[in-house]
Amino acid sequence: MFNLKNFGTNLKIQVSGEIDLDDDKAFFIGLMKTYSACIDRSDSLIEKFNLSLLDYEEPYVQIIENMMLKHYGEWKTELMLWYIYDRVSYNGDLNPIIVEDKGKEKSIIIKDPEDLWETIQNIESKIDKKDE
Questions:
Q1: Dist CA 66 CA 72 (whole Å)
Q2: CB burial class (10 A; 0-12, 13-18, 19+) of residue 80?
Q3: Mean pLDDT over all residues of the chain?
């Protein structure tokens, strides 16, 4: 039998940065900003110093991306990862996403995590209407 009375007595969990656990939108935006900054720092090390920490970082990246998948589901996570890795082209231009809306293709430029949140909400509302 386990005794959990003393479990965590010296442990303090502190939410830091822009993460707001009580507000879904604020949580999402904070998560995307923080994760983007981490990936950008990694990329910067490679560019400036030819130093790759990929072998070290990969397990952490897998944990984060698996948690995103568990929390947000497949299509939202795919869109989130597109935002992190593929939204900005090599020459610095923003790549659009192409969505189908009422049988027509629509090109959307996503500038920041708030745009991404709004795009996901719009797509989700159309999926919900289609399922009704």
A1: 10
A2: buried
A3: 89
